[in-house]
Amino acid sequence: MSVLSGKKILLGITAGIAAYKTASLVRLFIKLGADVKVIMTPASKDFITPLTLSTLSKNPVHSAFFDKKDENELWNNHVDLGLWADYFLIAPATANTLSKMANGTCDNLLLATYLSSKCPVYFAPAMDLDMYLHPSTKESLNKLQGFGNTIIPVASGELASGLVGEGRMAEPEDILAFIENDLLSALPLRGKKVLITAGPTFEAIDPVRFIGNHSSGKMGFAIALAAANLGAKVILISGPSNQEIEHSFITRIDVVSADDMYKAAHQYFNDVDVAILSAAVADYKPKNIVNQKIKKVDSTLNLELTATKDILASLGEIKKHQFLVGFALETNNEIEYAKGKIQRKNLDAIVLNSLKDKGAGFATNTNKITIIDKNLNVKPFELKSKAAVAKDIINEIILRIGSEDHYK
Ligand code: CTP
């Protein structure tokens, strides 16, 4: 999944020959799952038709303050368009438009929308070599950067005039890559590695039977997605779960038993910055796995169980710089038990679920948590969707890994 997926992109097109490349640009944004609206300056329509762009963007294309349709005149509200956008890209951005935007001129719809937009703005300049090198163009670009806008570097090569040099608009793929990288570099978990355990474990009794539990994996998968969406590279170690997840930053490792999960968690732990152990690991497993299917012989059957290794506690013993988070499911005396676990297992924080709370637990799509940190600060949260709970958990971790206190 791209950082641009689900985002609203406003594309402003001005009158440069590179305008013909905006058809590809719109397609690439749509392919990544973004929603695209296009505003064209009147003169840019000589280079590419609004019909092409409305077909590709699946949205009407605006160019004037009023659309004349039959008897009705529709006002294109530039303020609404500006506020709609998550990101505003002006491509190609001609020397004329750069200069007008740098100076607050607003005599067309695109310029007025720029003045009223509040989102991050990217410019992909396109012009001839000498226009690009002119001090007035440099001044416009500097001014726009001073306003907090971002300039996507021009490419070098053959220009429409036949001259060769700097001034070509960056290729559509490069514009997208630039914006994606720029957004990623601003994400709070960029460069961080996060290990997450999720789901149940199955402990084999014989070749056809096992001891398991009702954990769906939903909470852990939601945490993995929340962390990846904030730029983290995630190792998601999952017990048997039918949850699906697709994100280029998430590596899923499927395991079955507590022993498998222990091995996988230890394999990756040294290399991560944060570990969140949300899996419902079996506390006991059959002492001996029977090789053949157990036959029904007597009216009772005794299974001897032995404790599994506590993955969380074992990571607490070896942790150095890692921020280690455990989960606790309690039925009574919740806060005190959870605080005890933080100390016993050497955790940085614990996420507490109480079975007393309606809507919390395994199979639901909601959860109600309390986060307790190693300084024993207790923070209760409302009942929320598991996706929203996951964001709360990740935000609380970000607040703490950013603080000096974590490294004491
Ligand atoms: N956990 C683990 N490995 C185990 C058992 C549990 O990593 N073998 C982790 C879970 O992923 C979760 C936390 O420990 O983060 C939950 O522990 P829990 O079973 O609630 O606590 P226990 O210490 O086993 O205490 P009790 O069962 O007495 O509540």
Rounded to an integer, what's the Rg over CA atoms?
A: 28 Å
Classification by helices and strands = alpha/beta
**Can you identify the CATH class of the largest domain?**
Alpha Beta
Low-confidence parts, pLDDT < 50 over ≥5 residues? none
Total strand segments: 24
Describe the structure in your own words.
- With about 400 residues, the protein is α/β, with parallel strands linked by helices.
- It folds into 2 domains: about 10-185, Rossmann fold (3-Layer(aba) Sandwich), CATH 3.40.50.1950; about 195-405, 3-Layer(aba) Sandwich (Rossmann fold), CATH 3.40.50.10300.
- It is about 30% helix and about 25% strand.
- It contains 13 helices and 24 strands.
- The protein has helices at about 20-30, 50-55, 80-85, 95-100, 110-115, 130-135, 135-145, 170-185, 220-230, 260-270, 310-320, 335-345, 385-400, and strands spanning about 10-15, 35-40, 60, 65-70, 70-75, 85-95, 120-125, 150, 155-160, 165-170, 195-200, 205, 210, 235-240, 250-255, 275, 285, 305, 325-330, 350-355, 365, 370-375, 380, 385.
- An 8-stranded mixed sheet has the order 15-14-11-16-19-20-22-23, with helices on both faces.
- A hairpin with a 4-residue loop joins strand 22 and strand 23 (about 380).
- The mean pLDDT is about 95.
- The protein binds cytidine-5'-triphosphate.
